[in-house]
Amino acid sequence: MAKKAANCEYCSNFVYDEDYECYVCDRNLDEDEMARFLTGTFDSCPYFQLYDEYKIVRKQM
User: Fold this and answer.
1) Rounded Cα distance, 15 and 46, in Å
2) What's the pTM value of the predicted model, to 2 decimals?
């Protein structure tokens, strides 16, 4: 399986955490993945899923 490119702003796993008052990755990252995520060098995320707000609408058509 090829790894997908990551842009966290467009990922459905990138959610707002009210406790921390910032956006966080909703996936359970291991220590190495978390270090890359925090330093901004997480450029090939295996968990990336494009956030598509119209996905449900297309299914209804």
Assistant:
1) 17
2) 0.63
